[in-house]
Write a sequence for this structure.
């Protein structure tokens, strides 16, 4: 998205955010929880499938949840929701920008972010992850998150960068309003000196389209909590729990680094009659110094003493 498109998107989402704000006042913000939903449908022929997907996803919302949509691509009407803006082209930062702007004017509110995962790539893996994430983001456990927590989701993973895999969550506005404007965040991530230039593994660093997934966990004052105690699911698509999982809220990351980043044993083989051993695999996302550099360059801040990373990362390497 170029600068002129950014300006147009900003003006449109600003007016859209006003539509959410007009439905609330300061007192209502404590009980009313807007769900900012990013909806994509490629074309008319796929719209019926996408509409079923969205209705099924939103069927578990609580009375406190009111849904506000940004739709992209082919327009679809979803009952009992408010359309903020339709875009022929775009991505989820448009919806995240409206959420961020709402938090700027309602610091005491809570907000939910959801999207129609699987509407672009219809796969069983996306269906499973969408169900798991939605069950957490719209849960009563996240709705009533403890004071110690400011971002709640089904799973927070610190590997390969702090994120909620699949990017659906509830957050406190007092935290969200500290974040960089989502429309600017992707470009800002490209300037972080600890990230290798011209890397081909954008997912490993929260770059490109993955920057939207990293955004809500990108500030050093993030205090995440999550709901799944299934240690087999760490991140991505492997071993995703059922949407019917038992929810047990805990501060996150709830597992230590040996669970999120198990040490891979050296591979041994014989070549030309000689024993060979592979070098240790260096996994991305395990450097506390890289994380601190990113915080400082994005926000000009360092983590406080209660930051979750002091326990998770290897402290022996920290140079402050």
């Amino acid at each position: 998205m170029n600068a002129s498109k950014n300006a147009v998107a900003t003006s449109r989402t600003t007016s859209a955010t006003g539509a959410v704000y007009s439905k609330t006042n300061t007192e209502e913000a404590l009980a009313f929880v807007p769900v900012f939903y990013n909806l994509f449908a490629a074309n008319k022929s796929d719209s019926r499938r996408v509409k079923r997907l969205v209705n099924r996803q939103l069927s578990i919302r609580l009375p406190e949840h009111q849904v506000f949509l940004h739709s992209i691509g082919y327009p679809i009407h979803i009952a009992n929701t408010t359309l903020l803006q339709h875009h022929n082209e775009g991505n989820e930062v448009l919806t995240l920008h409206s959420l961020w702007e709402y938090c700027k004017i309602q610091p005491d509110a809570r907000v939910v972010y959801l999207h129609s995962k699987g509407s672009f790539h219809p796969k069983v893996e996306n269906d499973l992850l969408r169900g798991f994430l939605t069950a957490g983001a719209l849960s009563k456990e996240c709705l009533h998150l403890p004071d110690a927590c400011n971002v709640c989701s089904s799973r927070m993973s610190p590997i390969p960068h702090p994120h909620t895999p699949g990017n659906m969550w509830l957050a406190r506005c007092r935290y969200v309003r500290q974040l960089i404007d989502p429309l600017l965040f992707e470009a800002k991530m490209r300037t972080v000196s600890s990230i290798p230039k011209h890397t081909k593994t954008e997912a490993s660093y929260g770059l490109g389209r993955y920057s939207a997934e990293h955004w809500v966990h990108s500030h050093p004052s993030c205090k995440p909590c999550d709901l799944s105690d299934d240690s087999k699911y760490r991140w991505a698509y492997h071993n995703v729990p059922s949407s019917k999982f038992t929810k047990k809220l805990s501060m996150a990351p709830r597992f230590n680094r040996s669970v999120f980043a198990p040490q891979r044993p050296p591979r041994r083989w014989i070549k030309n009659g000689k024993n060979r051993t592979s070098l240790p695999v260096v996994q991305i996302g395990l450097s506390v110094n890289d994380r601190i550099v990113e915080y400082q360059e994005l926000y000009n801040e360092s983590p406080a003493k209660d930051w979750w990373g002091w326990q998770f990362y290897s402290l022996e390497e920290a140079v402050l």
